[in-house]
Amino acid sequence: MAGRVASPCVGLCSTTVGDRVCRGCQRIDDEIRDWPALSGDEREQRMAELDALRVDVAGRHLSVVDADALEAQLVRHRIRFRAEQPPLSRAVELLRVGRDRIRDLSRYGLAPLKPLEPLDAATLHARLAADLLAAAEARREARASHS
């Protein structure tokens, strides 16, 4: 059996204001409510689903060209991440926290997929956040239709 899995909560829960999907961690409201009762294996499965969602969405906008530089910056700025967390999922966390301070994405091991389009970190984060919310809503609807 898997050990205890930390919560994906990032302290920005928008379900408290009526959202069905949290804008911070992309969990569905019932996943947040039921998290303490989930087994370690169930938590790992949910974390993997959330990572896959973030990788899919972030991968539409940027690539990780240097995972070591990304990790070094996460450590430097004390941004929490998990050892098994994919680099693109880590990049979502970096942009969420540092979007107003990052001036050069390459210093963080990141590159926009459309390099000719000037894109600052705050704009990139806004696009990611909107796309993540839409993808998480689609995930919620898919889960509801299977229930």
Which short descriptors sum up this protein?
mainly alpha; 147 residues; 2 strands; single chain; two-stranded antiparallel ribbon; 49% helix
Percentage of residues in strands: under 5%
Mean pLDDT: 86
Largest sheet: 2 strands, antiparallel
Q: What's the N-to-C terminus distance?
A: 26 Å
- Poorly predicted residue ranges: none
Q: How many strands appear in the DSSP assignment?
A: 2
Rough outline: globular
Question: How many separate helices?
Answer: 5
- Sheet/helix structural class: mainly alpha
User: In terms of quaternary structure, what is this?
Assistant: single chain
CA radius of gyration is: 15 Å
Strands side by side in the biggest sheet: 1-2
**Helix share of residues?**
40-55%
- SSE succession: HHEHHEH
Write a structural description.
This protein has 5 helices and 2 strands. Helices cover 49% and strands 4% of the residues. The chain has a two-stranded antiparallel ribbon. The radius of gyration is 15 Å and the shape is globular. The chain has 147 residues and is mostly helical.
Topology:
Layout lengths: L28 H6 L5 H19 L3 E3 L2 H10 L10 H12 L11 E3 L8 H25 L2
Antiparallel strand pairs: 1-2
What's the short version?
By secondary structure, the chain is mainly α. It is built from 5 helices and 2 strands, in the order ααβααβα.
